[in-house]
Amino acid sequence: MKIEAEEHLHMTAVVFDSLTLVKRLHASGMPDEQAEAVVSMARDVMLNVATKDDVDMAIHTLDPKFAAIDQRFASVEQRITSVEQRVSSVDHRLSSVEQRLTSVEQRLTAVDERLTGIDQRLASYDQRFISIDHRFEIIEQKFTILEQRLTMKLGSIVVLALGAFTAISKLIG
Q: Which of 50, 81, 144, 146 would you label with 22, given CA atoms 20 to 30 Å apart?
């Protein structure tokens, strides 16, 4: 806090009887030079002593400045309150977002579980298709064997029929 030139505190003079003090010091046995030095030092100290009026004047001068400081503190407190309200609002919105994210996370977990179930079912179907494919291979092998057997039987029948036809045609003929 800076005190401007027009606001200097004017100290009132304190009444100090230096002659009486020198006489008392001299009467108590102190040499004159030493007594004068003590009195000179006391006078210098008394020049810097504030009176009740000086203190009252300083208080009167400082009171408006403290009032201004109090107003500034009140303004700062209002701004802090405003900031606290905004932070509280942000906290509330963040809580809402956290709740939504938790809900989304729960839904994703449920979807994940359903997809895992679907994956397991698909794996089961894959095993079934592999089993069916294996059965078809066995059936194809059986058809191939039957085809070969039928071809051989048909060939035998044709050979026998030709032989019989040839024998009958020689007998008739």
A: 50
What's the pLDDT score for residue 14? 57
Helices (H), 1-51: 18-27, 32-47
Q: Read off φ and ψ for residue 4, nearest 5 degrees.
A: -75, 165
pLDDT value of residue 13: 54
Residues contacting residue 32 through CB under 8 Å, at least 6 positions apart: 22, 26
- Is a pLDDT exceeding 50 seen at residue 148? yes
pTM of the model: 0.41
Model pLDDT, residue 6: 44
- C-alpha–C-alpha distance, residues 3 and 65, integer Å: 10
Cβ within 8 Å of residue 105, ≥6 positions away: none
